[in-house]
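REQUEST ID: PR-0412
SUBMITTED BY: lab tech R.K.
PRIORITY: routine
TASK: structure prediction, single protein chain
INPUT:
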Amino acid sequence: MFLSKKVNTLGYEKIAMTGILGAISVVLGVMENFFPAPMPGVRLGLANLPVIMMLYTGGVIPAMLVMILKITLVPLFSGAFIFRLSLSLPSGAMAFLGMAICALFLKRYTSLITTGVAGAALHMLTQLWVIDRFYIYGLLSASITGWLIIVSLFTGILTGAGADILISRLQSVLPYSFRKNKPL
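STATUS: complete
OUTPUT:
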């Protein structure tokens, strides 16, 4: 064939796993809309499970691709595209940045649970900031902000613990290049 080696810089396994985990992330994100929310604006964050899993098993670039799929397709399939995208784009980017810092630079001091907490807290803070600046002025000083941050910490713990359990259970079926104990 005439394909050069530069075309496939991620490798076939990473491309396949990125697509699979991206699809799972989108399905989980759309399904979360059907779960009753404990508070307005709070979701469980199940769509971040594949992102954290890819971050710790596949690396930063494939995890970023999974996050981009989630950020763009979940609002498209959920309705109110512009509003949801205006919230998910900056908050997803900040959450990914925090999770990537935990996974790359603080890996020795953090776990998947702290990575989930960092992502959830940054996601909630960024969403509150966007809503405060563009939609409802004064929301950050409202009394609900503290409760939303506390709830996001709990959802981050659940997301990180879920990712940890899934990665440990799937170690035997993951390709070698996706094993958790290898360096990124």
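NOTES: Confidence is low (pLDDT under 50) at residues 1-7.
REVIEWED BY: pending
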